[in-house]
């Protein structure tokens, strides 16, 4: 049993996880899965599982920010999850982007404190190219406009630069 997310290998065999920040989004996301089941909640970590096309998917909220997200990711890796997709809100600097646009991050500029404990700031934080290609392909097949590019992680959620 992982101490923070309160999940274990016996509770889920999922390799794939969706990571919203807000615990309330877990139930909304799980609703789209077959046979959804709420697994529990500890602090900001609310968990559910279900299947999509026969594949088990775990949904786990992370709260806001890098420290709690890092805890979730490390503990998910301990129970065998190896593919994680963070879903939620982000800010934008481009005037061409609108509220609700789908952004697929292929990398991140690490401008936060938590990332520095894992790698130097000069080390690129890049997403898995195959996963990115799959997400772009699925968005096209579903006629969902998507923008692919870099994002920036930062400790100040409402900071305007």
Automatic annotation (TrEMBL):
Keyword presence, Glycosyltransferase: yes
Coiled coil spans: none
Pathway linked to the protein: Pyrimidine metabolism; UMP biosynthesis via salvage pathway; uracil from uridine (phosphorylase route): step 1/1
A molecular function GO annotation: uridine phosphorylase activity
Catalyzed reactions: uridine + phosphate = alpha-D-ribose 1-phosphate + uracil
Keyword Endoplasmic reticulum: no
Origin: domain of life: Bacteria
Limits of the Nucleoside phosphorylase domain: 15-159
Cited Pfam families: PNP_UDP_1 (PF01048)
GO-annotated cellular components: cytosol
GO biological process: nucleoside catabolic process
InterPro entries noted in UniProt: Nucleoside_phosphorylase_CS, Nucleoside_phosphorylase_d, Nucleoside_phosphorylase_sf
EC number, as in UniProt: 2.4.2.3
Alphabetized UniProt keyword annotations: Glycosyltransferase, Transferase
PANTHER family: FI09636P-RELATED, URIDINE PHOSPHORYLASE
Family: Belongs to the PNP/UDP phosphorylase family.
Protein name per its UniProtKB record: Uridine phosphorylase
Source species taxonomy: Bacteria, Pseudomonadati, Pseudomonadota, Gammaproteobacteria, Enterobacterales
Gene name, Swiss-Prot/TrEMBL: udp_1
